[in-house]
Fold Enolase-phosphatase E1.
Amino acid sequence: MTCAWNVILLDIEGTTSSVSFVYDVMFPYVLRELDAYLDSAWNEPGLAPVLDQIAQDAGSEDFATWTADCTDESERRAKVATEIRRLMDGDVKATGLKALQGMIWKNGFERGEMIAQVYADVPEALQAWTSAGLRVYIYSSGSIGAQKLFFGHSEAGNLLQYFSGHFDTTTGPKQVAKSYDTIAAEVGEAAEKVLFISDVVAELDAAQEIGMDTRLSIRPGNKPVKDGHSHEAITSFAQVSLG
Ligand SMILES: CSCCC(=O)C(=O)COP(=O)(O)O
Ligand SMILES: [Mg+2]
């Protein structure tokens, strides 16, 4: 059997998994744990680059410059917590925020306080696609660390074995065509050999602009999509026909 694609690239929220799991379980977990996490992890070396990224996302050079007006560490921590809450209120998909969320979710997934929801057709499709010789990658606004925690602790078990790799916003914004060019180059395929599935038309438009094939994911609870787009819609991965 010859297949139209060599690679399937997947979004998470609204595609493999429900928007409500992210908004009603994962984001509240971050808001609940944020202050305690910042207190306990403040001096850990892994936090420093994330704080620099949060400062850069806010338009500053680095964390030291961004917090130059703070008189002590508790003021610096409070400034970070306020910024994280502001970004989450606006659902901003900033790279630093996403990295910090991933670090906070680590405890939740590893202690079994959260188990990632995936649609029932997802594990079956991952199995079928990889058995057919396709490579599957994730491209999500969630950090690569968060993606690995998520699929490593799903209600269908550890699904990481199915993925050949992961991309997040460190590759570029999801609504920008150049990001998909970079991904095609990194996975070593012509854009035409990549199928991208997402719930967001602007992301699909960007992928289509460079020649990727696309499917619009329609799942319960997704934001309604306006007519007039040029993407075939699917309600289940079982509708992806390998030819
Ligand atoms: C494990 S990713 C958690 C969900 C998340 O934070 C997010 O922003 C998902 O965005 P997507 O690009 O997958 O729609
Ligand atoms: Mg999505």
Q: What stands out?
A: The chain has a mean pLDDT of 97. Strands lie at 7-10, 135-139, 163-167, 194-198, 213-217, 232-234. Residues 7-17+116-239 form a domain with the Rossmann fold fold (CATH 3.40.50.1000). Residues 11, 13-15, 198-200 surround magnesium ion (ligand 2) (CB under 6 Å).
